[in-house]
Amino acid sequence: MSVPTVIQYRIGAAVLSLACLALLGVAAVLPPSSEGHGTHESLGLPRCGWVAMFDAPCPTCGMTTSFAHAADGSLLTAIKTQPAGGTLALIVAVIAIGAAHAALTGVATFRLLSPLRRPLTLWLALASILAAWIYKIVTW
């Protein structure tokens, strides 16, 4: 890597880390809804239109609540609330740490993840979200 590329990489990694930390920081100050969904309403957002129309969970139902639990350190409760949300919250925390490491050291940490940038990974992620949605419907 040339010097400007390393600097750009480090700045990008720092921005990514800060974005992840901001997301987790907001989640940490939100009180998780005891219903397992609806925590986003404490941010001033409206009730989920999907729930209002169908009285059933949407594909991302419970994600904010799950993130709030995870940010409070209750990872098992986060996964029980919304499996994809709890997993995603953990992934965001790992990315925040990895990006901070990359920003501070300049080491191209994310090259280790290049095998994950394949179509199979995307399909597995989508299948996981679908499975989590089915779980949410069953536990509704």
Give the topology, please.
Elements lengths: L2 H27 L19 H6 L8 H9 L3 H7 L1 H23 L13 H20 L2
Helix pairs in contact: 1-3, 1-5, 3-4, 3-5, 4-5
Q: What does this protein look like?
A:
The chain is mostly helical and 140 residues long. It has one domain. The protein is 66% helix and 0% strand. It is built from six helices and no strands. It has helices spanning 3-29, 49-54, 63-71, 75-81, 83-105, 119-138. Helix 1 (3-29) packs across helix 3. The longest helix has 27 residues, at 3-29. The model has no long low-confidence stretch (mean pLDDT 91).
Brief summary of the model shown:
The mean pLDDT is 91.
Helical content band: 55-70%
Distance between the termini: 51 Å
What integer is the average pLDDT? 91
For the biggest sheet, the summary is:
none
Structure summary, number of beta strands? 0
Task: Please give the count of helices.
Answer: 6
Uncertain segments are none
- Percent of residues in beta strands: under 5%
N-to-C series of helices and strands: HHHHHH
Indicate the radius of gyration in whole angstroms. 17 Å
Which descriptors apply to this entry?
140 residues; 6 helices; single chain; mainly alpha
